[in-house]
Write a structure and sequence with these properties.
This protein is an alpha/beta fold. The chain folds into 2 domains: 164 residues, Nitrogenase molybdenum iron protein domain (Rossmann fold), CATH 3.40.50.1980; 108 residues, Rossmann fold (3-Layer(aba) Sandwich). The chain is 44% helix and 11% strand. The strands form 2 sheets. It has a 4-stranded parallel beta sheet, with helices on one face. The longest helix has 26 residues. The protein is globular and about 60 Å long. The termini are far apart.
Length: 296
């Protein structure tokens, strides 16, 4: 009798484990969102390291192995992962996660995007025709994407639909609770020079001016003449310079030396095992840095 009960218990535990959705997120920020919304009802695997530019990853066998078992892919979208995610999905031979299927989710497709061009024009640099994909720098858009993700998960796992929706609502409420502190940090901020158009959503959300970009056009390394032009344009002004951990330091350091502005080297992603609180801390790290210098 004890053996039978033990066997039944093992079957129940095994069934519960198998019932968890297998979610693959392209980046740590998307992994955080998936983990926050899905909670205990999904196992989340992340493809991209936290300190790498997700534009330029190489397809690896372990990516395809993870995608082969996935029930759902959670990507940034708007072609951020265009160089590696489509071939990785193709190599995984998993019909559930093909674009257009229920198992394929793009966060950027759930919100309004900045800088939508409609067509790719290489003269504009490394542009994304659908719009700027870096929505994870805007907590409000991330909350909107989280609510859309909850609905997708609910459609795949009706038994836990209420839990997904409750988790998404809780995340959105946490964003609302953090907004006053972020707004206070950035009130009267002089503005920032960014390396790329990564943090445009953050700057726009809090009405902080972007004073320039170290890249002359997106994806193109800065030239000496472009950096000198920035110095001439920004002399006698206040501001900060911000670049990501994987972006070259030479241009930001040159501007810092010439203008006397502080320079900050910041992450764009949370850690692989991050929670929502870690994401809020990341946003606070950015707002604290950008708010260092006030308008005169």
């Amino acid at each position: 009798m004890k053996r039978l009960l033990l066997a039944l218990l093992l079957l129940i535990v095994s069934g519960a484990a198998q019932a968890a959705l297998n979610v693959v997120a392209t980046t740590p920020n998307m992994g955080m969102l998936a983990r926050t919304v899905a909670g205990e009802h999904a196992d989340v695997r992340i493809l991209a390291p936290a300190d790498r530019d997700a534009h330029y990853l190489q397809v690896r066998p372990n990516m395809m192995a993870a995608l082969r078992r996935a029930d759902l892919v959670v990507s940034v979208g708007a072609e951020l992962e265009i160089g590696w995610l489509p071939p990785a999905i193709q190599g995984a031979h998993n019909p559930r996660i093909q674009p257009g299927q229920r198992g394929y989710f793009e966060a950027a497709a759930q919100v309004d995007l900045m800088d939508a061009h409609g067509v790719a024009d290489r003269s504009l640099g490394d542009v994304h025709p659908a719009g700027n994909p870096h929505i994870y720098f805007d907590p409000v858009r991330m909350a909107e994407a989280g609510e859309a993700l909850a609905e997708r998960l609910a459609s795949m796992d009706e038994a836990n639909a209420d839990a997904y929706r409750a988790n998404a609502r809780a995340f959105a409420e946490q964003v609302r609770e953090h907004m006053p502190a972020w707004e206070a940090q950035l009130e009267g901020a002089a503005g920032a020079v960014l390396y790329h158009k990564d943090a445009d959503y953050l700057m726009a959300r809090f009405d902080v001016p972007v004073l320039g970009y170290i890249e002359p056009i997106p994806g193109v390394p800065p030239t000496a003449s472009h950096l000198r032009d920035l110095v001439r344009q920004l002399s006698n002004r206040s501001g900060v310079i911000v670049h990501l951990v994987y972006q070259p330091e030479n241009g930001p350091e040159f501007l810092s030396n010439e203008l006397g502005w502080p320079v900050f080297r910041l992450p764009s992603n949370v850690a692989l095992d991050a929670t929502a609180e870690d994401y809020f801390a990341l946003i606070s790290q950015w707002t604290d840095a950008i708010g260092q210098t006030r308008s005169e």
